[in-house]
Amino acid sequence: MIVRPRPNWLRMLFVRRGSILKKVLPQLGVITALSILVVIFHGELLHWKVTLTTVPFSLVGVALAIFLGFRNSASYDRYWEARKLWGKLLTDSRNATRQYLTFIGTEARPFVLGLAAYVHAVRHQLRNTDPTRDMQRLLPAELMPRLANRQTPPLQIMMWLSECLRQHRLKGELDAILASELDKSLTGLNDAFGGCERIAYTPLPFTYSVILHRTVYLYCFMLPFGLLDAIGFMTPVMVAFVAYTFFAIEALSDEIEEPFGLLPNDLALDAMATNIESALLEMLGDRELPKPVEPVNFLLT
Questions:
Q1: What is the pLDDT of residue 299?
Q2: Can you give the residue ranges of every domain in the chain?
Q3: Is the whole model's pTM more than 0.85, yes or no?
Q4: Rounded to the nearest 5°, which phi and psi values hold at 253?
């Protein structure tokens, strides 16, 4: 995820870090080169003059802009819902920690570290990465064999947290009403994880990407022939501008469609998971907290 101060209007025109330009530059160069060739040869293709007017491009351009807007909105909805679900992981883990410290108080550290481990396990599950290092750091050693060779380690951690509450309930340290409140917080964590799984494992229908991709490229490849007679040698400039707009919107919507990845515009899950862990440790009274995630790859400051 890109996090940086907003530059002034002049620097904003030339900023590269955080823009999508690097990703679309090759195809943008091809379109611009084609436009230059069209101007040089006056729109002739194998001694045949390609006669196109701006009328069909105006009609198709409106439809294409609407389609691009729909695709971008659908992708951003997924991105923003994912961010809200990670906000729910933060609030529910804090609530569970507060309730445990208030209602029970004893043996709080293993339980709270288990909540932090659950958040990290969710992050690894969504990115299909190895959670072993974080699990060994936060969970009791006797719990590690239970997580080995499991398809969904977060669920095993959630079961262990629930069993901790059950043990306190059996010992008489937690009455039914307070146990129900704690269980609601754990249920909220599980609901947030389920919502993230729904986003991660259900992409937008592939046909949307195919239709949009084909239409954008065909439109941009034919555009020089339609503009040549109207604007002459300025054709490459205008084609490059239009192509940049369409290519960039398509590339951006493709990035944020899968918000849990490692692309520059995806969510900074490493930073968010570390922040949640720091908040829980601070509630335990710890002074030495995990260092904030350094700005690498997806996090630019």
A1: 43
A2: 21-42+51-283
A3: yes
A4: -65, -30
